[in-house]
Amino acid sequence: MSLAQFHEARLPLALAFGAVGGPERRTEVVQLASGREARNAVWAGSRRRWELAGAVRKVEDLYALSVFFEARRGRLHGFRFRDPADDRSCAPNETPSALDQAIGTGDGATTVFPLIKRYGDYERRIWKPMDGEVLVAADGVELAGGFAVDGATGEVSFDAAPAAGAEVTAGFRFDTPVRFDTDHLETSLEAFGAGRAVSVPIVEITG
Predict the structure, then answer these.
(1) Is there a contact between 99 and 169 (Cβ–Cβ < 8 Å)?
(2) Which of 47, 160, 162, 180 has a CA that sits 20 to 30 A from residue 41's CA?
(3) Model confidence pLDDT, tens digit, residues 33-58
């Protein structure tokens, strides 16, 4: 991820309400002469995409969207987006626990572990944890200190390397790094004091 072109600003929640989207994958499907089909994953992982437009908003909200868009220079700079359907290490209606996700196994030397969230056997790298929202445990015991979390890279750094064989786990809330997927912000006035953004696509930054 190009941190030089990323702003640690979060899209205001008022502008995120009504967003439609979720994860997408790229799969190539080939129909064979036998009638069977062959499928190949073009992308190694998934990428999330949303559309922020659609809901009628107050003119003040449209102005705030315009300010945020201009500050990011359109597609140039990335930003944080809170996905209400997937913003934590557990289910949306649960509270994160330090035992939620396995992020590594100690070897007595490694001190840095990236945050990871698993969906079955698929691992998703978590780049943008929320400040103060990361819990860490070693061998099932939650740690009160002795580690630091980098909110810009999603890495947990230990003061002393976890012992060999110790399972390192974490619970957290996180934002998704995204960018606008357009350089043109189009809005319309729907009524006095209210309007609508015609199309505001945003897409996850995955590398």
Answers:
(1) yes
(2) 180
(3) 998 999 999 998 999 999 998 765 78
